[in-house]
Fold this protein.
Amino acid sequence: MIIETLLSFFSGIFCFTAYVNNNGCFPDPLPPEEEKTCLEACKKGDLAAREKLVRHNLRLVAHIVKKYSSAGEADDLISIGAVGLIKGIETYEYGKGSMLATYAAKCIENEILMYIRANKKRRSDVSLSDSVGTDKDGNEITLMDVIPSCDDNLFSGVENRLIMTDIKKYVSTRLKPREKKVMELRYGLNGERPHTQLEVADILNISRSYVSRIEKKAIKKISDYIL
């Protein structure tokens, strides 16, 4: 998955998750004048304004994901839909005819459809969920586990260097030693090359499932810090 910036990714995904966990109570759409003000501020690089626009349009992602729930894992579609929403907000031109909600909905749906088509193309050759054996704990290992994920280079693609510097500092000074090492290995930080979860498990002599839990916990900490 191509992510414009790490901040955008986390703000979209974790805000969405937070509202889903709160019984799906999404914020109401912004009043037209407030939306216009936020759009103008967003064009000038105001991250708080963009975050506000994302929060108040999350219901669009929820609505569109329901249409394609049979085409893939809900978490994957939510992630893709959130990226589409962020792209829609960043490229929307006020006063060009369509409303933000209409334009953003098209961006969300287009992003999901591109993902579905690409996923079908990959699966026509080989399924990433195909089993390739078991680990030392007896857990099934799939093809997905032994190749770098699409997000393995997400840190290196971040355009906002100030945010990236802040994140690296947080990883090196605030995470627990094992969390720090897992993140460095998984995402190629501090000169490391990106590794699969299985490779990290072998290097640290722990189970792959434990690597996954450590990684998710570390990402949550980073997200709480930068949002």
In short: The CA atoms of residues 12 and 82 lie 5 Å apart.
